[in-house]
Amino acid sequence: MKFDEIYALVGHVPYISKDHGKYLYDMILEQKLTSILELGIAHGTATCYMAAALQELGRGSITAVDLIDVNFQPTAEDQLKKTGLDAYATVTRMKSGYTWFLHDEIARHTKDDKCEEVYDLCIIDGPKNWTIDGAAFFFADKLLRKNGWMIFDDYDWTYASVSRDGDTTDGISHRSLSEAEMKTPQIREVFQLLVKQHPNYGTLKVMNESWGLAQKTMTPDKNYTVAFERTTRDLFAKVVTGIYRKIRS
Asked: Is-contact 145 59, C-beta < 8 A?
């Protein structure tokens, strides 16, 4: 399904912009990313964009994971069925979140004390929490193939930006957080302190303080790019780039 067709069907449903949806769609087509893990799906709008790209490729599947106790209307299942793309995505609902799903995936793909790498793309878009998403990064890394991509949404988001008495975000009670945890963009910390320093990841991009992307290059060379343009066409027209080399001991 062409991008304009899928956008006409689901583009009015949050929580992904048209530009980000097109970026994902094009990325999947251009790099033939056919095995996709999506952790945190909300309405499944991004799921539909990715499924449409897989339909264009004629192959591939998305494993989409979220909580049982969510109240997003329309649901991801509803949108996939509406678009006729449900054959390209399997939605799994977990009681306690996606870290235990990752436990199950690692266990399922482990043989002789080695975990098979099975995914080309992993998107982490859940509670935006250092503890949960930091752990999810290390778990998902075990399942990500060489040259595969990790994408983190809500790079600069904070709990304080939406906090009201009694608020929770994907099961995280804001009342349980310290002032520093409320005010710090926790996905930014995951990306800067865990992903960027990880020896497996060499190509790293931050897009508009909204997405963090990292490619599992398995090389000591690191290329770090910050993109400020906000349209898909000109996304990397103006960049600040830092290249540095990490010498492995």
From this structure: no
CA torsion 55→58→60→64, rounded to 10°? 10
With tokens 């995951």, the residue in question is 190
What does the pLDDT look like over 89-110, one tens digit per residue? 999 999 999 999 999 999 999 9
**C-beta separation of 80 from 47 below 8 A:** yes
Helix (H, G, I), strand (E, B) or coil at 211: strand
Please state, in angstroms and as integers, the Cα–Cα distance from residue 209 to each residue in 5, 45, 58, following that order: 28, 21, 33
Distances (CA, A) of 181 to 130, 174, 226: 9, 9, 24
**Contact call for residues 108 and 139 (beta carbons, < 8 A):** no
Give yes or no for a contact between 41 and 47, defined as CB atoms under 8 angstroms apart.
Answer: yes
Range of lowest pLDDT (33-42, 46-55, 70-79, 235-244): 235-244
Residue 131 structure tokens: 């503890």
CA 112 to mean position of chain CA atoms: 29
**Cα–Cα distance for residue pair 114/143, rounded to 1 Å:** 11
